[in-house]
């Protein structure tokens, strides 16, 4: 992922053997085109795509830096995923690094190559349960160390048998 200076865009390059993922991701972005909760797709190549640069913080950074993730953000993710479903996609691989709270306070979802997989994915539901069960509670710390979140994510992947995505 490279930020293009002077333009508010990023270029995502897929290295071998993952070039074919570029195709999936661009097809998926075209399906959700026009929705502000997904970055706009500008250009595509065999092994790259060019997207809007979303200025903001990922949910992961929010937890790390103590920036509140509000119930309306969770609701916006739900709505955006429902929208993708209505466009024939199967939202998958929803995790803290792929959800951004923009500078304006709205949610944006990135990294949607796996939205076209057929296998069901429980990841967002699991995150949401965690949000309401723990994050919402008064005793939940305002900031979480990165190492702890990395450990939790690794344990989750081991339990669920999912691979090491970012
Ligand atoms: N359009 C974007 N605007 C801003 N930051 C982005 C954008 N796309 C990706 N990023 C940042 O780069 C990271 C990796 O991008 P991502 O598309 O998730 O690649 P990967 O498929 O390797 O996980 C994201 O977690 C996010 O921090
Ligand atoms: Mg990612």
Automatic annotation (TrEMBL):
Protein name: Ser/Thr protein kinase
Entries under InterPro entries matching the protein: Kinase-like_dom_sf (IPR011009)
Domain of life: Bacteria
Record's keyword terms, sorted: Kinase, Transferase
GO molecular function: kinase activity
